[in-house]
Design goal:
Strand order of the largest sheet: 21-22-1-23
Shape: elongated
CATH class of the largest domain: Alpha Beta
Largest sheet: 4 strands, mixed
Structural class: alpha+beta
Strand content: 15-25%
Distance between the termini: 11 Å
Helix content: 25-40%
Number of strands: 23
Number of helices: 14
CATH superfamily of the largest domain: Enolpyruvate transferase domain
């Protein structure tokens, strides 16, 4: 497996363009199953999770054409309602296709989903909501089997504002007879993006961006839709932290700053200079920077997906920081890897305690999940000496050409065989 070789200690400077949102693109691709015709998506990131979703849809009978960031999906005929378990196991977002398949075909078989090992992400919100709409769902050892002779509108309350469950139930309710009301719905930008996409196709969804969604069922959607994926706020946030942790100056373009206000507020509180325009933001940082406390929350709170990168930043901020992870109980696997680099960081349950140190040192570390891998890259960019971040396939799942974009900002980063530094005779393909 490949790794990143990073020579740290270089302030990042310059501008970087943000790709389309991974989470938004995956939700739109799942929602495309409701349309019997053609879907054209622009600004689709070229990442592994999108490739996995394409392969998953192909197994259901969807054909596709891909040119750069434009993806065409031909969804007129579905030939299967049973996704490939191996593909489903790679990615949690594969579960998003369950509702659209059931709605369109009247039945669906869904293997238990996989994804990053950051903690349990139960699908009971999804299943209970689908049952409220009239689906009959049976759970076997490795499979969910669902049938529905037409879904009916219902009032659904989510115990927590899960973005995945909100998106799943919103797509399922599009063809449900009557009115569906989803209370305590997620208000993430990706949820709003999906609602706008479905409305553009002829759905009748109101309330997107608020905690209550109203979906009036329709009989059919338009056979053709062209739509643009919103920018990836998590990629943008990662680059904002990269500029701050290296004490550099980075202009982040093609972004919606409003989607990042929780992160930007914490960076500003820490002493980072942040400037916003309508489609860009500039991050400037220099010592000394101060420690801050973080609590992850559903949007618009501080995003759990930026908790790990922020921990890398706080490892070099003066003072003591306390980070409370309230979403996932196991999103702490980056901690021992940061310790290898000299960070004064420890875990107590879901709480991460950090005391800033003057410097980090280069080390050989391993990415165990997507955002944890990004955190290690950020730490390596700021560390003294050479670091190797191994198993970067985790990072490839959600970041488009991360090494190339960082290189454009002046970082000394390259892909290499994970053991190239140990055995200089080793070659790579």
């Amino acid at each position: 497996m490949e790794s990143y070789k990073i020579i740290g200690g270089i302030p990042l400077r310059g501008s970087v363009e943000i790709s389309g949102s991974k989470n938004a693109a995956l939700a739109l691709m799942a929602g495309a199953l409701l349309i019997e015709g053609e879907v054209v998506l622009h600004n689709v990131p070229q990442i592994e999770d999108v490739s996995t979703m394409i392969a998953l849809l192909e197994g259901l009978g969807v054909q596709h054409e891909r040119q750069g960031s434009t993806l065409r999906l031909y969804t007129r005929e579905l030939t299967s309602a049973e996704p490939d378990p191996k593909l489903v196991n790679r990615m949690r977002a594969s579960f998003y296709i369950f509702g659209p398949l059931l709605t369109r075909l009247g039945y669906a078989y869904m293997p238990h989903p996989g994804g990053c090992q950051i903690g349990s992400r139960p699908v009971n919100f999804h299943l209970n909501g689908l049952r409220a709409l009239g689906a009959e769902i049976r759970e076997e050892e490795t499979l969910y089997i669902a049938r529905a002779n037409g879904l009916r509108g219902a009032r659904i309350y989510l115990d927590m504002p899960s973005a995945g469950a909100t998106q799943q139930l919103m797509t399922a309710a599009v063809y449900a007879q009557g009115l569906t009301i989803i209370e305590n719905a997620a208000i993430e930008p990706e949820v709003v993006n999906l609602a706008n996409f479905l409305n553009a196709a002829g759905a009748r969804i109101e309330g997107a961006g608020t905690s209550t969604l109203y979906i009036e069922g329709v009989q059919q959607l338009r056979p053709f839709i062209e739509y643009t994926v919103i920018p990836d706020r998590l990629e943008a946030g990662t680059f904002a932290i990269a500029g701050a942790i290296t004490r550099g100056e980075v202009v982040i373009e093609r972004v919606i700053p409003e989607h990042l206000h929780a992160l930007l507020a914490k960076l500003s509180e820490s002493g980072v200079q942040v400037q916003e325009t309508e489609t860009a933001l500039t991050v400037r940082a220099s010592d000394p920077l101060r420690a801050v406390d973080i609590r992850t929350l559903p949007y618009p709170g501080f995003p759990t997906d930026l908790q790990q990168p922020m921990c890398a930043y706080l490892a070099l901020a003066q003072g003591a920081s306390v980070v409370h992870e309230t979403i996932y109980e196991n999103r702490v696997q980056h901690v021992p890897e940061l310790q290898r680099m000299g960070a004064d960081i420890m875990v107590e349950g879901r709480t991460i305690l950090i005391r800033g140190v003057p410097r980090l040192r280069g080390a050989r570390v391993k990415a165990t999940d997507l955002r944890g891998g990004a955190a290690l890259v950020l730490a390596a960019l700021a560390a003294e000496g050479v670091s190797y971040v191994e198993e970067v396939y985790h990072i490839d799942r959600g970041y488009e050409r991360l090494d190339h974009k960082l290189h454009g900002l002046g970082a000394q980063i390259e892909r290499t065989h994970p053991y190239a530094a140990v055995n200089p005779l080793t070659t790579t393909d």
